[in-house]
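Why does residue order matter? Because the sequence determines the fold. Keep that principle in mind as you read this record.
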Amino acid sequence: MAFTNIENTAKVVYHDTFDGRGFTDQNSLVNALLTKPDQLDPVLTHLMGRQDKQFPLSFLSEGYEGSKGIQDVQYTYDVINKLDKADIVIESQYSGSDKPGLNNTNFFVTFKSNWLKTDHIIESQNDVQARIVSRPVQVGLYYKYELQLMYDGRFSSCPLSELAAGTPWAMVGGAPVSESLSMGNESNFVAPGKMKNQLSFLRKSWRLGGNISKKTVECKFNVGGKQTNLWIAFEQWQFMIKWKQSIEEHLWYSRYNRKADGSIPTKDPKTGLVIPIGAGVLDQIPNNDTYSKLTARKVKDVVRDVMFGASDTENMDVRLFTGTGGAEEFDDAMKDEAKSMGFIADTGDKFVTGSGSTLALGGYFTQYHHKDGHKITVQHLPLLDLGSRANKAPRHPKTSLPMTSYEMYFIDMSVYDGQKNVQMYHQEGRAMKTGILQGMADTPYSFSGNKGVIALGTEQDASHIHFMCSKSICIRRNTHCFTLKCDLA
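Structure:
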């Protein structure tokens, strides 16, 4: 729960609540106590800060350069070598020599709540991925889920250690679906060669009931720079943030699921159609290493090992995507190196400003120029601090930051032959689709028929909003990229 860092719990009137039912109506507000009157400050306080600036990869590819449309699900490219909260397990029915998920069979796990949603990929603390096959069944106070192990060649079955009571799992990277006929789901708030990847199709749905679009609450929300007490505006903002986060996470963490024979074992149980999943950034990077305390020598040696030898890699633009912990490690490493070379004393004015009793210590390294001409620039990746993986990650023993905050992804963002090394692709005509199944309940979206006589798509007093997109991230020269993970052991 939130507020766990507040020692005196008597100061908490009530905790913020997580609604995992996947449906919003006026009862949602009552259950969340948002209609309770008489509070001191009507403006909502974000204890974890604003979360609308956490998608740098989407910005650097789709937003900055533009996504490119293709016709097929798969694509190839020529290469030349030298790229919310977690839920916890309550129990499972497996023990001993059991191999849950073997040969693509479904297996069952009971989680504490119904926060994890149908069709989404979930991931354990040790990076085992599974897809939620159907809606969970409530068993007493808890929820029993049916899962399918994701095929990626890493695990033939789900390790029993990942099903032990207390093990955290989190939704990571959205809900991949088949290319067509998919159903809506729910929201919770050296020599030339050839490589291939494929598009992922992601969906997220939002279900509204009754007159919820007109309901107001006692606190005010800052949405798009404007204050409002309309609940629907804030829920719409949450929906969009979660949608963007799921896309960003999918671009980083998704794993290519097509076998060598071209088949895809992951299928939609409702239609029997395959669910293609493209390789995310981490799945495309072949170079991986670890560190316990980062040093400039470590950065220098790894960069040279990865990038030395190619004829056109001078002055490469390498972005170091990392969390708060990784940024501090980088700064400490650069300052230690500068101090060992006698530069800190000579450039003290860069770190100490002011005079007399108003001195300020500051100045942080965010860039490193390699001797071979490469420029490495630190780029903060908030998902490593606050994203789904961070929610389930163990904590650093000294800083209490999630260990994901110390992960470092070195991505070559250079331009070769007039083409950016990192590019986004989508299926032509399906970069982003939005649909509304209109019932009697109003929605925050404008469309013909929302005034007066409504052309209904369902007789129920409910409306459903559906988002769908096709996405794939391509690192053309993935051999120029590497990851560093903090390993304190």
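The two ends are 29 Å apart (CA to CA).
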